[in-house]
Amino acid sequence: MRAAGVGWVLGVGSSPPWVHDVMVGLAVAVGLAMFLHECRRRRMWDERLIPVIVGLVVGGAVGARLAGVLDAATHDGVGALAWAWEQGGRSILGGLSGAYAGALIGKRLGGYTGRTGDLFAPAVAIGLAIGRVGCLLTEAPGRPTSLPWGVTVDPSVAATVPECPGCVAGVPMHPSFLYEIVFCLIAFAALLWLRDRIDAPGETFVLFLAAYAVFRFGVEFTRANPPDLWGLTRSQVFLLALSPLLAVRVWRAWRRGVYDRLLPSVREPVRGAA
To answer: Which residues does residue 17 pair with via DSSP β-bridges, in sequence order?
Structure first.
């Protein structure tokens, strides 16, 4: 079924920019509520976490915008920097990197030495899902597709999305942001299941980052982002550089038996052979 009106129903390209900002604000609010819930559930609340929270939020906002500014500068020249900072796009990967750096700075300033990854993991997952709803409602969808769930954009809306050739042509396109929403909701549910099954501090967050990196690399092939190097988008190049670090981190945790409760049938033969 060609979803001739689905793009319009979903609001692809038709919602005003402030809708995206509202969804980002809602994502931050829900994420913080989830973080505080995890603190109470784990009995880990500490006033020294306040600078960590502030650092994460501020770092995420600055990182997301800075990544958009750098992208604009390399594509459109230095003259586009001011416009990009005020009105340009934002990057999820830049936001995650900035949030991580901000949290580390907040821990140093606040004197908090405990692991916080497990507290933030479900908060980040649900926050990303909500934030991507804003992207779905205000940004161009993905690349053209022949799959039955491809979406098209209403002709009256397509004229307002010049950076989306598929929108103008009226061809079905991947609802790439919808893919990410579904992934993040599944990841959120998985993290809630894992939190009582992995005891090592910080490991659920590492697993989430690894899973998101693999997913995001693949979903980039359905998005409208232009290739930049080796036929890959900038996000994919960044993830290629990051993935070995995450892979080593997960492998070392597996070697330490962190995932034994999840994979007992895999570990037992290894121990028996030893």
So the answer is: none
